[in-house]
Amino acid sequence: YPILNRVLVGTTDIPVDMTEEVVCTDDEVDYFFDLVKHVFPGIHTDHSQIVYRYSGVRPLPSSGDTNPGFVSRDYRIVHGRLGETTPVLSLVGGKWTTFRALGEHLADETLDALGKTRSQSTASLPIGGGRDFPLSPSAKAQWAREHAGPISPERAEQLLTRYGTSATRVIADLAVWGDDALEHHPGYSVGEIRSLVANEWVVTLSDIVHRRTSLAFSGQLSHSLLSELAHIMASERGWSNEDISREIMSITVEEGSSQWVLS
Q1: What separation, in Å, do the N-terminal and C-terminal C-alpha atoms of the chain show?
Q2: What is the CATH number of the domain that holds 150?
Q3: Are residues 94 and 160 both part of a single domain?
Q4: β-sheet bridge partners, residue 87
Q5: 75-87, pLDDT tens digit by residue?
Q6: N or C: which end of the chain has fewer CB within 10 A?
Q7: Quick one: 245 and 180 in the same domain?
């Protein structure tokens, strides 16, 4: 799957013990290489091309000894009771790509149990940066020109691509903090990172590199960049030197488990 000028390859169906660390193993990687070779025999792949690997755990209904690959990826809502009178609805299964549909379904059943009706459907309700998002290239360019403020339209369109229409808040922060590029990654700016820390519930360095940006996912991390980001966070969160070292070390530990590839 092409994404961020990279190729995402997956997935496997391996049962895991949630009391143990879950990682993408070398055996799984070799399986992926064999799969790519089978589908695209003219394309060479090897471990040196990997910039990032990760594991996610999908909750599935209990299936005994059934091969996980044959277990439904759909969800179900199980009705039960707490005591004799309190209804309990349990959501079993589900995944990110269907979370809005299952959320509305569960809410509908909860409302029904309470004897109430829904006042608004969320089926076509835009959320977050999807609100009023321009759909065509010309509309995106117009949005960028209209909202650029202190930055160039090209930079505004870059932020629109990253954050959707929530980019307006980032741009407003850049008007205050400036848009000086990071020393070790000119594609992001100090003001942009400060805006994420201030507005996106950023608590750890891992939040920034793993969840609020694509820096780790796209293989753009370096030790120098981690240090730079940690010091920006320190100024916003009041971290001590010990805090900075611990946060950087937490990413280095992840690197040691073969999930991160640092340059």
Answers
A1: 24
A2: 1.10.8
A3: no
A4: 81
A5: 889 999 999 889 9
A6: N
A7: yes
Q: Where in the sequence is the domain holding 75, given as residue range(s)?
A: 60-125
Token pair 């640092």 is found at 262
Q: Considering Cα of 11, then 6, then 31, then 27, what sign does the dihedral take?
A: negative
Q: What is the Cα–Cα distance from 89 to 113, expressed in whole angstroms?
A: 9
Structure tokens at 28: 């799984």
- Stronger pLDDT, 101 or 60, i.e. the higher one: 101
With beta carbons less than 8 A apart as the criterion, state whether 46 and 30 touch.
no
Note whether 157 and 225 are same-domain residues. Answer: yes
Task: Note the pLDDT of residue 257.
Answer: 43
**φ, ψ (nearest 5 deg) of residue 158:** -60, -45
| Count of Cβ atoms closer than 10 Å to residue 149 Cβ | 11
Question: Per the structure, how many domains does the chain have?
Answer: 3
d(CA 211, CA 162): 12
Helix (H, G, I), strand (E, B) or coil at 202: coil
What does DSSP say about strands 6-7 and 76-82: parallel, antiparallel, or unpaired?
A: unpaired
| Least confidently predicted of 42-46, 142-146, 152-156, 200-204 | 42-46
Strand (E) or helix (H) holding 6? strand 6-7
Same structural domain, 113 and 200? no
Alpha-carbon distance 208 to 182, whole Å? 14
- Coil/strand/helix, residue 82: strand
